[in-house]
Design brief:
By secondary structure, this protein is α+β, with helices and mostly antiparallel strands. Strands 1, 2, 3, 4, 5, 6, 7, 8, 9, 10, 11, 12, 13 and 14 form a 14-stranded antiparallel sheet that branches.
């Protein structure tokens, strides 16, 4: 029984050691996977462009962003100068071919503003470092300007909306997981030369992760993870606020350049018509981004940690046999009889007679 118990304990120690080694190996493997889930193998400059559609929604007012495949407003067959505030459109003519007076050529991308308005896209020219940090200087962020026709009573007005960055954009890129984030501070400069210049500030966080808190709002968005094959990604947000507009920097009013824009003008002409300020969950943005560089995750070479072999102390099994009692029989006495004397008779002597000598006479010689 003692031997069996000790052997069981020895087996238990070996099993525990084996489990420990296995867990250590799994931990090394897990850490290796985690270590390869961040960083960029080919850091450097990058030119990003939003030219695959998307949209901006401000307090329920949706503005579609253009694709490279979209026709310009002066050749798309649509009357793009409807009044934003209701009422009659700017005119009923459609496109350059239909003699719309605001279309200078078919390539003109505004059916509202007189003159040539070429197609523009959002562009961000920055860099990505080895840790996956994205930096885009403020001066390298550009937004397209767009024009809106509106009526205030019977008074028509063309409103110029110019988005501009107010700080550098920052973000992160993890090629391994496909998650890209951006933080952008910008503003909308809403301007009419005759009536007002009002600015609405916006600060937003965007992500390609559908489960991110920035995408938990009510307006549907469709983020897409980063593609290491072509460098494309779609970052979105529907959890940001838009502040109420305040008087802008150009000091315009009515008549032009005589009376500065007042807060009352911004409230009555901009905030009321655009629904500003607009709290979180009431706004959304979707930006499909293309890049001139496809960043990839670094290749991680995992060197296994040194294996420590623990040798259990030798188990000494001492078996003590029950004492053996040996009974020695009493010594046996052997009596040897007295030796027997054998008398041998005296040897018999045989006398052999001496040999007999025979003398032969010499041969006789006869002479003739």
């Amino acid at each position: 029984m003692t031997i069996a118990i000790r052997e069981s304990r020895a087996r238990l120690v070996l099993v525990v050691l084996a489990v420990f080694v296995l867990c250590s190996a799994l931990l090394v493997a897990f850490r290796s996977v985690g270590a390869g889930a961040s960083g960029v193998a080919n850091p450097g400059p990058v030119a990003m462009k939003v030219d695959s559609g998307g949209f901006l929604n401000l307090a329920g007012n949706a503005f579609n962003l253009k694709k490279t495949t979209d026709l310009t407003e002066c050749q798309n067959g649509v009357n793009d100068d409807a009044s934003f505030t209701g009422g009659a459109p700017q005119d009923t003519a459609i496109d350059k071919a239909g003699n719309d007076p605001q279309c200078s050529v078919a390539a003109d991308d505004s059916e509202v503003q007189i003159g040539l308005q070429p197609r523009q896209y959002i562009t961000l020219n920055g860099s990505v470092d080895a840790a996956g940090n994205i930096t885009v200087p403020q001066a390298n962020i550009a937004f397209p300007t767009f024009y809106i026709f509106a009526r205030s009573g019977n008074t028509p007005a063309v409103i110029k909306v110019t988005p501009t960055a107010t700080a550098a954009a920052t973000g992160t890129l993890d090629p391994a997981s496909g998650i890209v984030t951006f933080h952008i501070d910008w503003q909308l400069d809403i301007y009419n030369a005759a009536f007002f210049d009002c600015v609405a500030p916006i600060s937003m966080d965007l992500s390609s992760d559908a489960g991110a808190g920035t995408n938990a709002g009510a307006i549907p968005v469709s983020p897409v993870l980063y593609n290491t094959g072509d460098g494309s990604v779609t970052v979105t947000s529907n959890e940001y606020a838009v502040g109420g507009s305040v008087p802008g920097p150009t000091n315009v009013g009515f008549p032009p350049n005589l009376t500065p824009t007042t807060q009352a003008a911004c409230d009555n002409l901009v905030n009321t018509n655009f629904g500003l300020p607009s709290g979180p969950r009431n706004n959304a943005i979707e930006l499909p981004v293309t890049s001139d560089v496809a960043f990839t995750a670094p290749t991680t070479t995992t060197t296994a940690a040194p294996t420590t072999t623990t040798t259990a102390a030798p188990t000494t099994t001492t078996t003590t046999a029950a004492p053996t009692t040996t009974t020695t029989a009493a010594p046996t006495t052997t009596t040897t009889a007295a030796p027997t004397t054998t008398t041998t008779a005296a040897p018999t002597t045989t006398t052999t007679a001496a040999p007999t000598t025979t003398t032969t006479a010499a041969p006789t010689t006869t002479t003739t």
